[in-house]
Amino acid sequence: MELLIFVSLSILFLLIIVKTVGQSKPMKLPPGPRPLPIIGNLHQLIGSLPHRGLADLAKKYGPLMHLHLGEVSTVIVSSPEVAKEIMNDHDTIFASRPNLLSPNILFYNSIDIGFSPYGEYWRQLRKICTLELLSAKRVLTFRSIREEEVFDVIKSISLQEGSIVNLTTKISSMTYSITAKAAFGKRSKYHDEFMSAMKDVVRLLSGFSIADMYPSVKILERITGIREKLERTHKRVDQVLENILIEHRVKRVESELGISGEAKEDLVDVLLNIQESGEFGAPLTDNNLKAVIFIISSNDLQTFISG
User: Where is the signal peptide (predicted)?
Assistant: First the structure.
């Protein structure tokens, strides 16, 4: 094992030297601290409060500075005025996210609205989300779910009269429950299973991966074990999402045959309607649907876990 680590680090060192020597004329970049060989400026962000390290560097180098995080060239913006200019005047240039290992594996090769590159596909996904999934009319149809969850929280707090109540946890849990029921329906038997799997997803996305700092050194994905963890977690979540799609398709057939009553339409039903109608403009695969469900649910679950 020690020999493998030594060989891997030696290869990493040689690759970075070759890449550095072979670089073309350097780009005109914002000011920033001088990077160290191999690690760049990673040493300046070590600790539990890296944002404070960035704030200290910004005081010295200005609101727009450049850092080398491993082999990744990174521009840090710490001024509201500069951030506004980037988001408003140059939004299309900065619309795409970097190509990272975690979303590529977890989100079906980054085909979700959160990580897919800016372009026609992303615009169509955004259109589905704004006009179909999150429109004012659609949100209104989930009013009964919100009222029910709020009532349950109030009832839970009233039963703990005289005790200390963690409102952050309760409200975060309520928010996720509303999202889950709106997405999968009140009667889905996969809520708890999905929530358990998604907790692993959020932890992986929130953590630091050295492999993302050296994307050209693919062996790091195996040495650190991050690829195996991501693939195992993706397989688990994918199976739950597949079961949810099957569950909804079965209910739709039963409803059409009159075997069961007509269930209230949820977000998965909306996506299945779009898939069947062909309104998207390009064929929507099951993986496309899973990726959309995945990203919508993971955002609220991250709030729940951090709460």
Answer: 1-22
Residues 6+ apart with CB under 8 A from 295: 107, 112, 113, 114, 115
Over the stretch 259-276, which tens digit does the pLDDT of each residue have?
776 667 899 999 999 999
Q: How confident is the model at residue 93 (pLDDT cuts 50, 70, 90)?
A: confident
Q: Which CATH class is domain 120-306?
A: mainly alpha
Instruction: Indicate the pTM of the whole model.
Output: 0.78
Residue with structure tokens 């300046």? 44
pLDDT tens digits, one per residue of 23-71: 555 678 899 999 999 899 999 988 878 889 999 999 999 999 999 999 9
- Cα(52)–Cα(25) distance, rounded to whole angstroms? 33
Q: How far is CA 148 from CA 54, 172, 177, in A?
A: 43, 15, 10
Distance (Å, whole) CA 276 – CA 292:
16
Mean of pLDDT values over 7-24: 50
What are the backbone angles phi and psi of residue 280, rounded to the nearest 5°? Answer: -65, -25
Q: Which of 150, 177, 182, 141 is nearest to 300 (CA)?
A: 177
Domain with CATH 1.10.630.10 in the chain: 120-306
What span, in angstroms and rounded, lies between the C-alpha atoms of 106 and 232?
10
